[in-house]
């Protein structure tokens, strides 16, 4: 989940209070189209920028819905730019070093998906990058290696991510991310034609670039949506919506699964597309033109992404309960995670 706004928002209004927040999504299988992988419980991370534009990251290996420190932190922290990620591990052990987002200098980086045959291309990737970016890698995931490759790409473009005075814009970040995707695609497809899912998100604290990409012409990539408006607010406890008073984009969300119940709030990003959010909060969308681009002519299958738990739909309310559009309505308690455990947010202390 990504939030970028002209005004700061409390993290709790983004991460814990909405009924379909990423924290609730990580727990409640009814909010997902894929019922075989109902829980993202392998840790989480939150990255945000303070008023002085300094980035901060909080990670933990406990499930996001069961972390009292996250509840305390989110209630007293505000930011204009937030990255949130809940993890269901595909590679790497359970450790904080494997949790997203990854931070280097002012750069935050997240990944949703997986690189196929990564063990066979890891040596090529490591040999390609500069030593300082190899030393940046502390965990054991393909995602962190992809982050190192992105940082190396920026550096070879003439933008040192280690220098706090380095200035980027959305065009620079987009070019670097496209090059990162190209390198991974070339290395992976030389070994196997099985698809890699490469939904990446990166920011320098001002601009944001996000990809929805898969190395396939017949499969859908992991789901990705965005929403823009004038204000994001709660109209009932736990229920939020996007308000549009004019054509302004004062509030921008990007998320794997929609955070509100209004279909009209969200735009689905087409497969093999990259979106950019400029410093001035303009959303731009560009197709990724390569051998896997299909101009929307071919109807892609969502089966692969669904089988990996990476396809989400707009949630609906069914007799007061939350159900993902197209999902099976399993019997799962509709209470927020803390209350499921017999606790209340007001009872939580740091």
Summarize the structure in short.
By secondary structure, the chain is of the alpha+beta class.
Largest sheet: 7 strands, antiparallel
Q: Low-confidence segments, ≥5 residues, pLDDT <50?
A: 29-41, 322-350
CATH architecture of the domain at 107-224 and 269-312: 4-Layer Sandwich
Instruction: Please state the oligomeric state of the protein chains shown.
Output: single chain
Number of E-state strands: 17
H/E element string?
EHHEEHEEEHHHHEEEEEEEEEHEEH
Termini, distance in Å? 24 Å
CATH class of the domain at 107-224 and 269-312: Alpha Beta
Strand order of the largest sheet: 3-2-4-1-12-9-13
Main features:
alpha+beta, disordered C terminus, 350 residues, Glutamine Phosphoribosylpyrophosphate, subunit 1, domain 1, 7-stranded antiparallel sheet
Strands, helices and their partners?
Layout lengths: L1 E9 H5 L6 H6 L16 E6 L5 E6 L7 H8 L2 E9 L15 E3 L2 E8 L3 H11 L2 H6 L5 H15 L13 H20 L7 E7 L4 E5 L12 E5 L1 E6 L2 E5 L7 E5 L11 E2 L4 E5 L5 E5 L15 H5 L7 E4 L2 E4 L12 H4 L10
What does this structure look like?
With 350 residues, the protein is α+β, with helices and mostly antiparallel strands. The chain has a domain at 107-224 and 269-312: 4-Layer Sandwich (Glutamine Phosphoribosylpyrophosphate, subunit 1, domain 1). 23% of the residues lie in helices and 27% in strands. The protein has 9 helices and 17 strands. It has helices at 11-15, 22-27, 68-75, 118-128, 131-136, 142-156, 170-189, 303-307, 337-340, and strands spanning 2-10, 44-49, 55-60, 78-86, 102-104, 107-114, 197-203, 208-212, 225-229, 231-236, 239-243, 251-255, 267-268, 273-277, 283-287, 315-318, 321-324. The strands form 4 sheets. Strands 3-2-4-1-12-9-13 form a 7-stranded antiparallel β-sheet. A 6-stranded antiparallel β-sheet has the order 5-6-7-8-14-15, with helices on one face. Strands 10-11 form a two-stranded antiparallel ribbon. Helix 6 (142-156) packs across helix 7 (170-189). The longest helix has 20 residues, at 170-189. The protein is globular, with a radius of gyration of 19 Å. The two termini are 24 Å apart. Residues 29-41 and 322-350 have low confidence and may be disordered.
């Amino acid at each position: 989940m990504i939030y970028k706004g002209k005004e700061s928002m409390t993290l709790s209004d983004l991460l814990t209070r909405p009924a379909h927040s990423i924290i609730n999504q990580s727990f409640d299988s009814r909010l997902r189209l894929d019922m075989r992988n109902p829980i993202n419980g392998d840790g989480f991370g939150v990255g945000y920028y303070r008023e002085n534009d300094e980035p901060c990251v909080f990670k933990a290996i406990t499930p996001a819905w069961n972390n009292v420190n996250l509840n305390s932190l989110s209630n007293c922290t505000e930011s204009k730019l937030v990255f949130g990620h809940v993890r269901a591990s595909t590679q790497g052990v359970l450790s904080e070093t494997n949790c997203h987002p990854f931070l280097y200098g002012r750069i935050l980086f997240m990944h949703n998906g997986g690189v196929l045959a990564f063990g066979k291309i890891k040596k090529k990737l490591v040999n390609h990058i500069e030593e300082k970016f190899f030393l940046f890698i502390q965990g054991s995931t393909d995602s962190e290696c992809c982050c190192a490759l992105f940082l190396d790409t920026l550096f070879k473009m003439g933008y040192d991510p280690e220098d706090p005075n380095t200035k980027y814009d959305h065009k620079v970040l987009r070019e670097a991310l496209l090059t990162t995707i190209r390198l991974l695609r070339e290395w992976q497809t030389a070994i196997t034609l099985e698809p890699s899912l490469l939904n990446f998100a990166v920011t320098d604290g001002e601009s944001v670039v996000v990809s929805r990409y898969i190395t396939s012409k017949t499969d859908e990539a992991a789901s990705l949506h965005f929403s823009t408006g004038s204000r994001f607010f709660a109209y009932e406890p736990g229920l939020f919506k996007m308000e549009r008073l004019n054509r302004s984009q004062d509030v921008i969300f990007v998320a794997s699964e929609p955070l509100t119940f209004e279909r009209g709030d969200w735009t689905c990003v087409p497969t093999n597309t990259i979106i950019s959010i400029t410093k001035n909060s303009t959303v731009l969308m560009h197709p990724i033109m390569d051998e896997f681009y299909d101009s929307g002519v071919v109807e892609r299958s969502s089966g692969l992404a669904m089988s990996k738990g990476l396809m989400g739909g707009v949630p609906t309310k069914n007799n007061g309960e939350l159900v993902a559009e197209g999902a099976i309505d399993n019997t799962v308690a509709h209470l927020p995670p803390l209350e499921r455990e017999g606790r209340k947010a007001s009872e939580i202390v740091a």
